[in-house]
Amino acid sequence: MMGASALSRTSAIDHAVSAQVIGELRAQIIKAQARRDGQPGDGGTHWYSLDAPARLLFEQVIQHLRRFVPRAHDLVGAEWWFRATTTDTGFPFHFDRDEGVRSSIVSPDLASILYLSNAGGPTVILDATPSRVSAPTAGIAVHPRPGRFAMFPGALLHGVLPGRSDRWPRVTMLVNWWRSVPRMEPAPEDLRSTRASSRWRVDVKRARTPAAALEPIDPSRLLARAAWRDLIAKQATYR
Fold first, then answer.
1. Closest by Cα among 44, 40, 83, 47 to 62
2. What confidence tens digit (pLDDT) does each residue in 111-146 have?
3. Could you give the domains of the chain?
């Protein structure tokens, strides 16, 4: 089945970026959130064309992460955003989509997450796609670790489970990779002044980026089959 086949293409690597870069990203995300009066969550999604110069630190990191992405030469751009939440906050299961298209779900080619803290619950990726209304039968949990970079097919259902309460936030940078341009959204003014860093150089060496452990998870532990089918149907008809 397509969902199960796609789920097998989920992967994660550790130490994808250095501790210095993790610290810079985390500081900028928390600073950007403070500009929004401390409201938790993300600051909206933004578009970066992969053939453009990296003018933001976030864009420089995207160009670095691109080296880990399968068939990256087929991609035209990256939709990116960030999220900082309390560790006991989850995120509903959903399909990533081009929000400019309402008549159907148009998914990115690849979804990815760069974890910037080790706090909070895991991301859970399931073998359910928009074309399958049946309940998922298998899943994978990826736990946050600073510098861990997870990748999975963009059509898969996924969400975040809440973790234990902690004083530190759960901080992530999320990147969806596209072969065609979705609705374009420029980076906001408060990020445009954040120039790419010249204090670090990227040098991808596979030997230094070991594969991260992926935890199998049974979707029936989370929801009953009927509840999963209802959730997927609502996602598929979302306008």
1. 47
2. 999 999 999 999 999 999 988 778 999 999 999 999
3. 2-236 (2.60.120.620)
Q: H helices of 36-121, where?
A: 57-65
d(CA 99, CA 182): 8
Helix axes 57-65, 19-35, angle to 10 degrees: 140
Whether 193 shows a pLDDT value over 80: the answer reads no
Q: 3-state SS of the chain: helix, strand, coil percent to 5?
A: 25, 25, 50
Q: Which of 73, 96, 100, 61 is nearest to 185 (CA)?
A: 100
User: Do residues 107 and 154 lie in contact, with contact meaning Cβ atoms separated by under 8 Å?
Assistant: yes
In sequence order, what are the residues at sequence separation of 6 or more whose Cβ sits closer than 8 angstroms to the Cβ of residue 104? 130
Q: Region 13-24: what's the mean pLDDT? A: 96
Asked if 165 contacts 88 with a C-beta cutoff of 8 angstroms, the reply is yes
pLDDT at 34: 75
* Residue, of 193 and 168, whose pLDDT is higher: 168
- DSSP annotation of 19: H
| Mean pLDDT, range 67-96, rounded to an integer | 95
